[in-house]
């Protein structure tokens, strides 16, 4: 279950961050409506992937995903936009991922 959840978080991050990036490119970089449309489809895929998480609590899944989004956005920026995070960006992302682990995978009674 944990492996499935981690895979879904990764795919969700690609779909959501990629979708927002495509919309951003379409609007801010004047790449056109096709980029925006593909971005909107990717965002829809994110919603489907997020709802496939094994945990049935919407609030828990979305709260934990927030940490994945933070770390994934920094990685996306590094790979596609040449962004170079400073040590505080890295520390913040690691804190967020620690929060993901606690929220999603801590033993519950």
Automatic annotation (TrEMBL):
Which SUPFAM superfamilies does the annotation name? Multidrug resistance efflux transporter EmrE
Q: How does it sit in the membrane?
A: Multi-pass membrane protein
According to the record, the segments passing through the membrane are 6-24, 33-52, 58-76, 88-106
Ribonucleoprotein found in the keyword field: no
Subcellular location, in the record's words?
Answer: Cell membrane
Entry keyword annotation includes Membrane:
yes
InterPro entries found in the cross-reference section? EmrE-like (IPR037185), UPF0060 (IPR003844)
Q: What is its main location?
A: membrane
- One Pfam family this chain carries? UPF0060
Stretches assigned to coiled coil: none
* NCBIfam families, alphabetized: PRK02237.1
Q: Which family does it belong to?
A: Belongs to the UPF0060 family.
Write the protein's name.
YnfA family protein
């Amino acid at each position: 279950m944990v492996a499935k959840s981690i895979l879904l978080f990764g795919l969700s991050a690609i779909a959501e961050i990629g979708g927002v990036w495509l919309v951003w490119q379409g609007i801010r970089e004047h790449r056109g409506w096709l980029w925006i449309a593909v971005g909107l489809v990717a965002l829809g895929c994110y919603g489907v992937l997020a709802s496939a998480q094994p945990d049935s609590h919407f609030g828990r899944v979305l709260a934990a995903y927030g940490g994945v989004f933070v770390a994934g956005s920094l990685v996306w920026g590094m790979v596609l936009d040449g962004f170079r995070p400073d040590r505080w960006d890295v520390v913040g992302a690691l804190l967020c991922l620690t929060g993901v682990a606690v929220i999603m995978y801590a033993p519950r009674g």
